[in-house]
Amino acid sequence: MMTLTEPERPAVIVDKLLPTVARCEDYLREVRDAGTVLRGAVAVDKWERRLLVAVHAVGSSGAKAAALLGMPARTFNAKMEKLDAGRAAANGSKRRRSASNIE
């Protein structure tokens, strides 16, 4: 587990946890060499979904989660509702949001 040093802020830590450019390049070379295609939009959606679900779990509410990301609460909640709608459509249900049912 990573320990925080005084000068490090959470944004710096999140940046350290994201894949490096070199790691992305290596992966994309593997995709190319295998003759397959990486669906970029799908990959970006997955990263965004994971980040939103994680920050919602940590923040415990939409407003607090939005504040952690430095975005307006309305924007955060709209993104979460979009995730809920997509998941409900995929499952054929209309369940309410919780961190466990969005992942």
Helix content class: over 70%
Order of helices and strands: HHHHHH
Rg result: 16 Å
The oligomeric state is single chain
Give the rounded overall mean pLDDT.
Answer: 79
In total, the number of strands is: 0
Runs in which pLDDT lies below 50 for 5 or more consecutive residues are none
Strand content: under 5%
Which class do the helix and strand fractions yield? mainly alpha
Q: How would you characterize the largest beta sheet?
A: none
What is the end-to-end distance? 23 Å
Number of helices: 6
Notes on the structure:
The chain is flat. It has 6 helices and no strands. The protein is mostly helical and 103 residues long.
Short description:
By secondary structure, this protein is mostly helical. It is 71% helix and 0% strand.
Supply database-style keywords.
71% helix, 103 residues, mainly alpha, single chain, flat
Write the SSE topology:
Elements: H1 10-17, H2 21-34, H3 40-59, H4 62-69, H5 73-91, H6 99-102
Helix pairs in contact: 3-4, 4-5
